[in-house]
Design goal:
Oligomer: single chain
Radius of gyration: 16 Å
Mean pLDDT: 85
Number of helices: 2
Distance between the termini: 16 Å
Low-confidence stretches: none
Strand content: 25-35%
Amino acid sequence: MAMAISLPGFCTMAVDEDLDTGLVAPVNKRFALAAVEDDTFAYLVTRRTEDNTHIEYGVHALGPNAQQLADKIANVLRDWEANRRGGPSTVIRVIDKVHSRISLSWPSA
């Protein structure tokens, strides 16, 4: 949820098995959290720690501004860990329009 609220280019990614070139390698090829910013794309990856007790998050990014977008996503994850995790849940408000939208917000801790 933190990425969806904090990144205007938030999206999800799926890799088509028939077209997979191996360029991207999400943990789950059917559903990975991602973001697009101009001509740069990044997605979230995870791996288990050596002792197999925790999961670490990472970001793979492609494009001319890959480092900047990866840093931005990493900062969103760090903020979530430091300030949001275990706190109040996300508020979801549905606003009825011709084409419905969902608005997500996080209440103050």
